[in-house]
Amino acid sequence: ADELLPSVVNISTTQIIKDRYNNRPEFQFPPGSPFEDMFRDFFEQDRSNRPKTRKATSLGSGFVIDESGYIVTNNHVIGEADQIEVVFQDETKLKAELIGRDPKVDIAVLKVESKKKLKALKWGDSSNSKVGDWVLAIGNPFGLGGTVTAGIISAKSRDIRMGQYDSFIQTDASINRGNSGGPMFNIDGEVIGINTAIFSPSGGSVGIGFAIPTDMAIPVIQQLKEFGKTSRGWLGVRIQPVTDEIAEAYGLKEQSGALIASVTENSPSSKAGVKPGDIILKFDGKEIKKSRELPRYVAATKVGTRVKLDDWCSNRII
Hints:
Blueprint: E1 8-18, H1 36-49, E2 53-64, E3 70-73, H2 75-78, E4 83-87, E5 93-95, E6 97-102, E7 107-111, E8 134-139, E9 147-158, E10 168-171, E11 183-185, E12 191-198, E13 209-213, H3 214-227, E14 237-241, H4 244-250, E15 258-263, H5 268-272, E16 279-283, E17 286-287, H6 293-299, E18 309-311, E19 316-317
Antiparallel strand pairs: 1-2, 1-4, 2-3, 3-7, 4-5, 6-7, 8-9, 8-11, 9-10, 10-13, 11-12, 12-13, 14-15, 15-16, 16-17, 16-18, 18-19
């Protein structure tokens, strides 16, 4: 924790919100009406006393990934902020520039200019982590910067219905509001996740937190650093889960793969010969145990890459 804390930052954002009530239409009264002067004075005084704009602030966490000043956080932490400020462990405050954001995976990349040399955290391989492994979380819960909590990985590949690429690491390490965007470390001090969400009826930690795994986050972060935006692979199909009944009808030994419901015309899949009714069992050598894994594998593939699909229906490789 002593080595990691200086690389974890607090993020404070400010957004200027226009007061929508200042733009409300005025009531019109017939000329000479006894209410005309009274209501005109009332509305003019009310409008002059009402502020035209107000500031909305929010807090979150982030961490340094490059000595040159690149910082990663969640997209929902920065929102539509007009100003972003990064606060380091030694209370140094720096203005941050937004380099790029990806709402679909909830990741944003910032850049600061620091006179001091920054220490970047090391990436770990989240695919090697297992349920039961110890993890450490550092962040800014409720504005209490530099907070360290510990726990274990409770589950992997969680789908919590936040987006089409859900595959979260679940942990019982205490994660609260303000921890969003902070790192999750393995026992070797390597970042294996980005703390993103909690399940909590009360709003506080109940031991169910979720982090974006690094094997999903790193390709997105690299694209945001280089291009300021992301581009994803596209297959051009609509899919549905393989049920027990479908697996039995197709002669599959187990319920796995993604059933092709339809194929988009002139898409990569149609040109390769994929047909409705096919079941994709592997994508580029990766087994598809659940249908929702296929969109994630495709999205993580570089545009223009040629990959192999293992197709059960015709027992062929495309």
